[in-house]
Amino acid sequence: MFTDLKFTPETAQGVINGANTVFTVAQPYVAGTLQVFLNGLLLAPDLDDGWQELGGVSFQMKEAPEATDVLRVMYRRIL
User: Which among 27, 48, 55, 74 could disulfide-bond with 9, CB atoms 3.0 to 4.6 Å apart, if both were Cys?
Assistant: First the structure.
């Protein structure tokens, strides 16, 4: 069904230190396809519940992840 889509899973780039809330991905993503996982849990795509897209390769978390957290993303990259 989705065999023609190129989804890229990766670890988000940025300092995870309990203060930083802005992170990036390695390649530009198609708007609306970014998924953010904090410690394995999928977060809702709105700032009230977790995060928001900033465009291009960036997104912002509502709350800064702690140093022990794992922040992963999956997105459809722009080809």
Answer: 74
